[in-house]
Amino acid sequence: ATWRYAFEEAITDVQGVFATKFKEHIEANSDHSIQLFPYGTLGESADIMEQTQAGLLQFVDQSPGFTGSLIPEAQIFFIPYLLPETHAALDHFFRNSKAINEDFKETYAEHGLELLKMFPEGEVVVTTQEPFDKPADLDGVKVRVMTNPLLVESYKAFGATPTPLPWGEVYGGLQTNIIQGQENPLFWVESAKMYEVTDVITFTGHNNFTTAVMANKNFYDGLPAEDQKLVQDAMDSAFNYIMEYQKGLGERSLEKILEQKPEMEVVRLTEEQRQPFRDAAQEVEKKFIEMTGDSGQALLEQFKKDLKAAQAQ
Ligand code: 6CS
């Protein structure tokens, strides 16, 4: 059969490289074929999720930044300074976390989705028109965020004016000054040419961009066991590949940005400067519990346990 797989980025971006690897594994090991739909071919992130829930697509890569509006627990990824910063700890966490690999599976299943893989896409940086090194500097600055309520709370706690928007409105929004900032990993700042419409890159250390690949659950449940195994193996292969692929990607992307725009200002907040942003995370964590109740509380506890194990590595 031909299976349709949509994602939120271009074919040469991280999600596209992952999807290509998945496709290669499936096609090399079966008679099935995969048709890939990069960003822009089927609409925005919310559209490809709807199409997957409706069974028009078999696979979708949608980041918790958007899924959080549908599945509140997925907003856990927007509690600032929660995820580890090193590649090794992230790798261990995503591979071994019970919260990621078991608990979330159940939650996504309640929404007709078979969660197949979650993986990190790189350290999030903030790009703005003016430099900032403390929350007060962000007063009145409209920072675009993906469309989920907890990310709005994060940027409120950071002192900014958060503006949730689908991806398609970000470049134009910055160009016309409807927004004055946005956050994303460096590869995306480079490939989406965010450096053309913002002048400062700030390393706040507050997050790593997480994404998730899932299948329509009816489709997945209807597959024979050997095809389910094929899908799982292809996901494992793509995960291994994408973790290797991302080593040094941020640095290489920053070099490319500076080649295109040597005057781009790059600011790395010191630990001391990060402290007020870290303090704000407490408030955001409280909001997360308010939004998700007992299930969110249990998930957060498991998450923290898994993070501890990853950091001990
Ligand atoms: O900020 C966004 O909306 C986009 N950022 C990334 C890294 N991937 C897809 C997403 O749509």
- The CATH topology is given as D-Maltodextrin-Binding Protein, domain 2
Number of helical runs?
12
**SSE succession:** EHEHEHHHEEHEHEHEEHHHEH
Q: What's the shape?
A: globular
Specify the structural class: alpha/beta
What is the helix fraction of residues, given as a range? Answer: 40-55%
Number of domains: 1
Number of strands: 10
Bound molecules: ligand 6CS
Stretches where pLDDT is under 50 for at least 5 consecutive residues are none
Please describe the biggest sheet, giving its number of strands, its sense, and whether it closes into a barrel: 10 strands, mixed
**From the 3D coordinates, which CATH architecture would you assign?**
3-Layer(aba) Sandwich
Distance between the termini: 42 Å
